[in-house]
């Protein structure tokens, strides 16, 4: 292996290790999550985004201070988190929310749902990388630096074929299977849905979860629910056109059920 390739792989492993030192924690502050998905390394347990680029460093180079663009991203993500998780607009509620301790998975689930379907330029620059690193989200084009499993694989492959030739030959995609963590997530979410959601709707959402390749991703669950309605095999689901469905209402009427309604339902009932 050439020295340049070896150094590159070591650098990728360092970045992975930096991220994993945070994903392995029991809890984050919301600001920590906003910094990490923006590619910045939190200093301590901040309750806000530090003022000035020199206050924190970039995950790409721990010796270099973050630039203003990276800082703006973190502020934008944190503001989005507050808008989605704080019902009251008063300053006291926002301050209390910023001091909250939340599970890393809770923050990342929020980010995955909130930015699902957004174009790349509106998505936090390191969100997809973190999700791929945790193997929550399949990436057709794995972001660089690559997750640690791919780093190890690349080192082995280079002994057989030059790195610049890898990918020149089409390869079949690897079948995706539901992980044990996803199975537990679906089981706990389903139990909560059965307790409080109207029985017919709960049943259909649970079925859509079971059909989804990634039950943690809103887009995946919504797509399955729409496919179920379009199949016309369900008397309690009505397909109204692409991306639009209805569910039974009182008096033999129908009411529109939207993707946003599903988002709110899943967010309310997802396991803590």
- Order of the strands making up the biggest sheet: 1-2-3
Q: What is the molecular shape?
A: elongated
The number of domains is 2
Strand content: 5-15%
Radius of gyration: 21 Å
Multimeric state of these chains?
single chain
Low-confidence region ranges: 138-178
**First-to-last CA distance:** 45 Å
Based on helices, strands and strand pairing, what is the structural class? mainly alpha
Number of strands: 6
Characterization of the model:
This protein has 272 residues and is mainly alpha-helical. It has two domains: 3-165, no CATH class; 180-269, no CATH class. The protein has eleven helices and six strands. It has helices at residues 3-23, 30-37, 68-85, 91-98, 104-114, 127-133, 148-158, 180-196, 199-211, 218-230, 259-269, and strands at residues 40-41, 57-58, 61-65, 238-241, 244-249, 253-257. It has a three-stranded antiparallel β-sheet. α1 runs antiparallel to α7 and α8 runs antiparallel to α9. The longest helix is centred in the N-terminal third of the chain and has 21 residues, at 3-23. It is elongated. The termini are far apart. Mean pLDDT is 79; it is low at 138-178.
Features:
single chain; 272 residues; mainly alpha; 2 domains; 3-stranded antiparallel sheet; 11 helices; 6 strands; elongated
Chart the SSEs and their pairings:
Layout: H1 3-23, H2 30-37, E1 40-41, E2 57-58, E3 61-65, H3 68-85, H4 91-98, H5 104-114, H6 127-133, H7 148-158, H8 180-196, H9 199-211, H10 218-230, E4 238-241, E5 244-249, E6 253-257, H11 259-269
Antiparallel strand pairs: 1-2, 2-3, 4-5, 5-6
């Amino acid at each position: 292996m050439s020295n340049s390739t070896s150094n590159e792989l070591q650098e990728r492993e360092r970045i992975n290790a930096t991220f994993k030192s945070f994903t392995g924690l029991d809890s984050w502050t919301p600001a920590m999550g906003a910094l990490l998905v923006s590619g910045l390394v939190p200093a301590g347990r901040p309750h806000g985004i530090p003022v000035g680029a020199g206050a924190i460093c970039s995950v790409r180079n721990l010796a270099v201070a973050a630039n203003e663009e990276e800082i703006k991203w973190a502020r934008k993500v944190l503001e989005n988190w507050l808008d989605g998780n704080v019902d009251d607009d008063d300053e006291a509620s926002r301050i209390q929310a910023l001091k909250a301790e939340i599970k890393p998975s809770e923050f990342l689930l929020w980010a995955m749902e909130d930015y699902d379907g957004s174009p790349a330029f509106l998505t936090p620059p390191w969100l997809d990388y973190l999700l791929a690193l945790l193997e929550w989200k399949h990436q057709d084009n794995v972001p660089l630096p690559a997750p640690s499993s791919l780093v190890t694989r690349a080192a082995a492959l280079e002994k057989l074929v030059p790195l610049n030739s890898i990918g020149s030959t089409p390869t079949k995609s690897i079948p995706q299977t539901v992980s044990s963590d996803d199975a537990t997530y679906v089981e706990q979410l389903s139990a909560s849905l059965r307790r409080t959601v109207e029985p017919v709707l709960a049943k259909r959402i649970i079925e859509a979860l079971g059909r989804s390749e990634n039950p943690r991703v809103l887009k995946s669950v919504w797509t399955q629910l729409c496919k179920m309605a379009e199949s016309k095999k369900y008397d309690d689901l009505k397909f109204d056109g692409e991306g639009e469905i209805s569910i039974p209402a009182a008096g033999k009427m129908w009411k529109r059920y939207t993707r946003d309604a599903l988002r709110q339902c899943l967010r309310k009932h997802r396991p803590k």
